[in-house]
Amino acid sequence: ELKVEQNPLFLSMQEGKNYTIYCNYSTTSDRLYWYRQDPGKSLESLFVLLSNGAVKQEGRLMASLDTKARLSTLHITAAVHDLSATYFCAVDGRYNFNKFYFGSGTKLNVKP
Amino acid sequence: DVKVTQSSRYLVKRTGEKVFLECVQDMDHENMFWYRQDPGLGLRLIYFSYDVKMKEKGDIPEGYSVSREKKERFSLILESASTNQTSMYLCASSPSPAAGSYEQYFGPGTRLTVT
């Protein structure tokens, strides 16, 4: 079964700093998704990465995908308090697009 | 914007009750999903449906059933609620891959407490 590992699981950082969240997955897949979840709320889609080398940026967040290494990164630039949330990556089954495999999530706390 | 709505944000039920959780999407998506989310366990797929009246078991279907009589509506049924079914339940929908997207869109969630 496909496994998705995120690290770190918890991240506490100061405003203005940069950091990277890593998402590794265990078998071949070409598509990876990043979601954000605020406390008590549902999952909000951030990025959809559909091919090797894909890079997407939105504000202070940038996501990339290396399918050969089975690795995606979510890079945070000059963090602000509003980015505090839990971030999930997910991979779909290569031949079963409907089945998403989620990482455990990275809980990010940005201190003002 | 894709909109996925769930019938209740918070629900409290007693052990043994039959519980219905409703999910409606307004984007004509073929696929609909039910997950539960628990601290430390992440999101786990209960059931999904790829068409009206079609369903497939996910990773943890025991104690649950589903119904999809109309394309826009997907119901999760707890036949006899138990305390270990206390959880956050998330519904999601996605278009057919032929539409060029596999992304799942999530509803606001229902926090169910079984006492």
Task: Describe the secondary structure blueprint for this structure.
The complex is a heterodimer of chains A (112) and B (115).
Chain A: E1 4-7, E2 10-14, E3 19-25, E4 32-37, E5 43-49, E6 55-58, E7 61-66, E8 71-76, E9 85-93, E10 96-102, E11 106-111
Chain B: E1 4-6, E2 10-13, E3 19-25, E4 31-38, E5 42-51, E6 54-57, E7 64-70, E8 73-78, E9 87-94, E10 105-106, E11 110-114
Parallel strand pairs in B: 2-11
Antiparallel strand pairs in B: 1-3, 3-8, 4-5, 4-9, 5-6, 7-8, 9-10, 9-11
Describe the structure.
The complex is a heterodimer of chains A (112) and B (115). Chain A is mainly beta. Chain A has strands at residues 4-7, 10-14, 19-25, 32-37, 43-49, 55-58, 61-66, 71-76, 85-93, 96-102, 106-111. In chain A, the strands form two sheets. In chain A, strands 2, 4, 5, 9, 10 and 11 form a six-stranded mixed beta sheet that branches. In chain A, strands 1-3-8-7-6 form a five-stranded antiparallel beta sheet, with no helix packed on it. Chains A and B meet through strand 5, strand 9 and strand 10 of A and strand 5, strand 9 and strand 10 of B.
Defining key terms:
heterodimer; A: mainly beta; six-stranded mixed beta sheet; five-stranded antiparallel beta sheet; 11 strands; globular; B: 115 residues; mainly beta; seven-stranded mixed beta sheet; four-stranded antiparallel beta sheet
What's the count of strands of chain A? Answer: 11
Question: Counting H and I runs of at least 4 residues, what is the number of helices of chain A?
Answer: 0
Inertia-based shape of chain B? globular
Secondary structure class of chain B reads mainly beta
Q: Averaged pLDDT of chain A, please?
A: 92
The parts of chain B where pLDDT drops under 50 for at least 5 residues are none
Uncertain parts of chain A = none
Range of helix content of chain B:
under 10%
Q: What's the total count of β strands of chain B?
A: 11
